[in-house]
Design a protein that fits this description.
The complex is a heterodimer of chains A (241) and B (144). By secondary structure, chain A is α/β, with parallel strands linked by helices. Chain A has six helices and ten strands, in the order βββββββαβααβααβα. The chains are: A alpha/beta (241), B mainly beta (144).
């Protein structure tokens, strides 16, 4: 067993989750909920979560691994209509408000915590979920925000701008269009120069070889995706920005 | 409909009595081809006029609800402000600032605005003057 950080619950409030990296089955579930137009995110598996003190954890990025069985709640009361899927709410009720909760590929969500992110946190990284789904999600969230600003007046910019600033995706399960140029276009749509980092998915048998997996990249985009963005995210030596 | 460089035409659209603060009137501009509609609003004593077409999807925006909205606030708190100054599109709920026609999220998206003038009812047309609250029997004009 090993410990990884999986979520930031509130200002200075962290959780640890015990996971088995080989099976992924003991990953805590994250569930999103829109209440009166305000999005919330809940840790849905409290037994494996334990708060630790602020002092123990330098502010670190968070890796969110999609649980492919997770059911995400998305009820948009501001706009009306029937709630989509539901996940039982956690017993402990700890929650933090997020900029946006929206369904991505494989039933998992992107979450950004306004307060903690703005304070010191450089953002979260969603891994092993591919990337090509993000651009249209950004467009959709912006479209919805344009009609639904009033329930979330604390937001200061478009959802896509928060995503560019705080959300990072990694390349594994990289989409492989017939024409490799097309993935470069998707990189452009999602500002991959700032949002995408390479990942290998090691030790899975179908992991990505860094020399083979990605389409031909050049110049700054290559440098940033292959290492600079990750170095900046995890604050390894040398500034990448 | 006016074109760049073309002189605008004044259209009488309402009497002042029809447009007290908070009121609106939607008029069809005569001889405007397809029957151009313009909404004239009295926003707390200030007159504004906008084309009755939402720049988002073409809805009759001027028929939307006039209200206030939530002001910028800390997370989880709601502060209502600007009552009577926000026009909400009847189709998709986009909020526009009635005072300048700008969409509250994306100011680049704005309603098509027209100048409004107010004159005493008995004055000749070349005596047009800017609106004063004391004028009670005036006429409201839109320049198209």
């Amino acid at each position: 067993m090993q410990h990884i950080k999986i979520a930031v619950l509130g200002p200075g409030d962290f959780v640890l989750a015990k996971i088995n990296p080989m099976t992924k089955r003991s990953l805590p579930l994250l569930a999103g909920l829109m209440l009166g137009g305000a999005p919330y995110i809940f840790a849905a598996d409290p037994p494996v979560l334990a708060p630790i003190s602020k002092e123990l954890t330098a502010l670190q990025p968070v890796a969110l691994l999609p649980d492919h069985d997770a059911q995400i709640t998305f009820t948009d009361k501001a706009k009306g209509g029937t709630p989509s899927t539901f996940t039982p709410l956690p017993g402990d009720g700890r929650a933090f408000r997020v900029v946006a909760v929206a369904r991505g590929k494989n039933n998992y969500d992107i979450e950004v915590d306004v307060r903690t992110s703005a304070a010191a946190h450089k953002g979260d990284v969603a891994i092993e979920g591919g990337i090509a789904w993000l651009p249209h999600l950004m467009w959709r969230m912006d479209k919805n925000y344009k009609a639904l600003r009033s329930p979330t007046p604390w937001l200061k910019k478009l959802s896509s701008e928060y995503i560019r600033e705080y959300v990072r995706l990694t390349t594994q399960l990289i989409e492989e269009p017939e024409n490799p140029e097309h993935i470069l276009q998707i990189f452009q749509m999602m500002d991959a120069k700032n949002t995408v980092t390479f990942s290998s998915d090691y030790p899975h048998w179908d992991f990505d070889n860094p020399k083979m997996a990605l389409p031909p990249l050049r110049g700054e985009l290559k440098e940033r995706i292959l290492w600079r963005n990750a170095a900046a995210l995890y604050r390894f030596g040398g500034s990448a920005q | 409909m006016s074109e760049p460089g073309k002189a605008k035409t004044r259209h009488e659209v309402a009497t002042l009595a029809e447009l007290p603060p908070g009121a609106r009137k939607i008029v069809t501009i005569p001889n405007s081809g397809k029957g151009m509609q313009i909404g004239v609003f009295n926003v707390g004593g200030r007159f504004v006029a906008y084309r009755n077409i939402c720049p988002h999807a073409g809805a009759p925006i001027c028929e939307g609800r006039i209200s206030g909205t939530t002001a910028a606030s800390p997370v989880g708190e709601y502060v209502l402000a600007r009552e009577g100054e926000i026009l909400r599109c009847p189709w998709h709920g986009w909020e526009f600032d009635l005072l300048n026609g700008e969409h509250l999220v994306d100011a680049k998206t704005r309603l098509r605005a027209y100048p409004v003038e107010v004159s005493p009812a008995t004055a000749a047309q070349d005596d047009l003057e800017s609106f004063e609250v004391e004028i009670n029997d005036g006429l409201v004009w839109v320049l198209v």
